[in-house]
Amino acid sequence: MARKKTRVLFIKYHEAADQQPLSKKAAEKLGIFPSLALGGLASWVRQHGFDVKIIDLHVENKYPADVADRVRDYDPHVVALTAKTLGWPAVIEIAQMVRQAAPRALVVGGGPHMSIFARESLTWDCFDVAVVGDGEDTFLEICERVESGSEIDGTPGTLVRKADGELVEGPPRPLERDIDRFPMTAWDLLPIPEYHCLTLLRPFATMVTTRGCPWHCGYCSQVYSEKLRFRSVEHVVDEMEHLERTYGVREIVFFDETFTIGKKRMLRFAEEVQRRGLDVKFNIRARVDTVDRDVVVALKKAGLRSIHMGVEAGTDRLLKIMNKQITREKTERAFRICREAGVDTRGYFMIGYYDATPEDIEDTIRFAAGLGLDWASFSVATALPATELYRIAQERGYVDGDFWRRYTIDGGGVIPQLETETFTAEQLRAYRTKAYMKFYLRPDLIRRKFSKSEGREELMEMLGGATVLSEIIKSTLFRRIPQVRLGKWATV
Asked: 65-95 burial, b if ≥16 CB within 10 A, otherwise e?
């Protein structure tokens, strides 16, 4: 294929502003991960002949001004940015820098936040195009139009801001069902050895095997599709083999919303990994109601190291309010299966959902401590956009009107802690600290951790975890909370 003249630059924002409720120090200790969104897009457009480059500000620990000269030297025709809600102000900073360093570049934004607030996002004149929904075919068409000198407006799956400020919406782009069309992440463009995480073997990589989610949990802003789409087992294992053989990757993090969907698919996956003789470990995310004993045993033999599951609440009443569609009994069963199979476990819990009582929170803390987990994460509920939780928070006055719309237009603001009739924000942060202390300072857990600490990596996990716990405690004692104002942190 003939090389094309259009140069395409992908920039990953620094996630310092995207790690609530932890301090920057604790967040950096927990981990820095590659951007699958940008790595996948880079691979896709490169496959079609475009010159591509990725700058990951987070792993480089740099901010937009630090890389302006590199952007200027590359002189891109198209710059692609991806935005999650909490990282939106940091993405604005990048776009503003690009507008100065490469004024002729077309600045394209995508990701969940741009999909929800496309029009609001384009009130910032540093952006030219918002991509709504899946990005591969839409972004490729944008690059092809730039290459040919065609107009961008009207591209399916986009909202385009013209020179006079007019916004032109293209028709919706149908979902691509065959996601095997898209190549694996452009791993050669990412500094794999530099990514790190407290509980992962290094070097590690990340992958997804599915898109979409059929569940509708009240706190989740999964906005793209409820229709599940699967990569083939062969396609997935090809990438795993490439990562192990080419880059020496020791562990792969599967970031699927729910990895363990389809018993036959899971058993074929485990069989294929073993058939190829792969020696790479992996960890997965799952719902407790998709955990099957035969599947867990097979995955363990294939290299499964840990399983992460969202529990969120310790009472069936609160789980029903969250529309979680699980029960305490199902949760206990799922973690028992994993524990008996010798798989490490991590549970995620939420403090302060609407209509929660002090008894609900205390029960959640006790439930977490009694599940036999290796790790637990506790967060204060945040009403993210496009969620049932946000709708209820607006109706009841827990947030000031349509906060996230203003946040998008204003370029940031202090993220509201979800205060209800029952709890203040300060009380919820105190409960979060109590949950961490009750979980991690249990003698039985400490004994179990030390009994497994036979090597340097396990010891470093424990020491890093102690650092994170101390940061969480300090954040409550000194009321250190992050403010998202163009990616900076502040103490109030």
From this structure: eebeeebeebebbbbbbbbbbbbbbbbbbbb
pTM, rounded to two decimals: 0.90
What string of DSSP letters covers 18-34?
A: G-TTS-HHHHHHHEE--
Q: Which CA distances in Å does 316 have to 104, 160, 217, 352, 354? A: 56, 46, 14, 15, 14
Distance CA 425, CA 169 (A): 40
Report the candidate in 357, 349, 345 with the shortest Cα–Cα distance to residue 328. Answer: 349
Buried b (16+ CB within 10 A) or exposed e, 98-118: bbebbeebbbbbbbbbbbbbb
Burial of 397-421, coded b for 16+ CB within 10 Å and e otherwise, reads ebbeeebbeebbeebbbebbbbbbe
Q: Is 404 among the domain residues?
A: no
Say what the pLDDT of residue 416 is. 83
Residue 133, number of CB atoms within 10 A of its CB = 20
DSSP-H helix ranges across 158-253: 233-247
Verify that 140 and 81 share a domain, yes or no.
Answer: yes
Radius of gyration of the chain (CA): 22
Structure tokens at 168: 């032109």
Cβ-based burial of 428 (10 A; exposed 0-12, middle 13-18, buried ≥19)? buried
Residue 2 lies in a domain: no
Identify whether 393 is part of a domain: no
Question: Among 152, 169, 186, where does a domain finish?
Answer: 169
- The encoded tokens of residue 478 equal 């000194």
CB 465 within 8 Å of CB 473: no
Q: What are the phi and psi torsion angles at 31 (to 5°)?
A: 160, 155
Tens digits of residue pLDDT in 119-165: 999 999 999 999 999 999 999 999 999 999 999 999 999 999 998 99
What's the pLDDT at 468? 59
DSSP element (H, E) containing 107: strand 106-110
d(CA 492, CA 490): 6
- Helix intervals (H) in 75-117: 88-101, 112-116
Please say whether the beta carbons of 111 and 83 come within 8 A.
yes
Q: Are residues 165 and 205 in the same domain?
A: no
The answer to whether the bond into 21 is cis (omega within 30° of 0) is yes
CB 334 within 8 A of CB 308: no
Buried b (16+ CB within 10 A) or exposed e, 27-48: bbbbbbbbbbbbbbbbbbbbee
